[in-house]
Amino acid sequence: MNMANDAELNPQELANIARTRAAFYSFLSVHFTTLPDQAFVERMRGEDMSSMLEALVNDESVEADITAGASLMRDHLNKTRNVEMSELSQALGVDRTRLYRGLSPSYGPPPPYEMVWSKTRQDVGLLVDLAGTYREMGLSPSPDVSERMDYIGVELDFMRELALREAAAWESNSPESAAKLLESQHVFLDAHLREWVPFFVDKALEQAETDFYRGHLHMLRGFIASEQQELASLLAEIHAPAA
Question: Are 223 and 1 within 8 A, CB to CB?
């Protein structure tokens, strides 16, 4: 999301960047972990969501896929503003089930599990490795999410938690801990999300029927694409020798 720049960043700015990333990971993850019931629809129609989407649409520094996705989601929410919440909830629920649950090969893409989409890791060893990674960081999937270790919502939420911990480390004047957490995010993104999520998104976009979920998928793909470079830039900056 192009948050780093050539100017030297102070710890509070780095903390703010990390919190922004964490918030976007949370936004991306919630569509995989939360059913679009009426409470969800009400939240999506809220002013905070409208403001966020509008800001992304009008931010020229944001990756093109993120802008396109925000525009699709914003426009869909605006066009359905007068639709009954129960009706919109049902329509979104049908599309979400098709896209994100993998009920059958004839009804939507394969489900968003890394082991399903990975080109190199298609055995249970992947799940063992992920469990070890989560455990090493003192984390485990939320008890509210009854999903496998390689589910996309779990992996996105793991990145959200690392970004929040990084922000807290910058704010508590622990730059070494913050840098290690930033490096952990870079490694996990490169080894996992970046290796399979784009393939899932490309396939899911072929079968999406609402611009709401088309928008979500575009934003997901754009964020994963831009995040690798963003994290690398931040790491290069904080490790650069002082002038």
Answer: yes
Spatial distance between the Cα atoms of 68 and 63, rounded to a whole number of angstroms: 9
**Please, what is the Cα angle at 50 between 49 and 53, to 5 degrees?**
85
Which residues 6+ apart lie within 8 Å of 145 measured at CB?
33, 151, 153, 154, 157
| Residues 133/188, Cβ–Cβ less than 8 Å | yes
Q: What does pTM read for this prediction?
A: 0.91
SS3 assignment, position 113? strand
Tens of pLDDT, residue by residue over 148-182, are 999 999 999 999 999 999 999 999 999 999 999 99
Alpha helices, DSSP H, located in 144-210: 152-171, 175-188, 194-205
Cα–Cα distance measured from residue 87 to residue 206, given in angstroms and rounded to the nearest whole number: 24
As a whole number of angstroms, the distance between CA 69 and CA 66 comes to 5
Cα three-residue angle 91-97-101, rounded to 5 degrees: 170
Rounded Cα–Cα distance for residues 217 and 35 (Å): 16
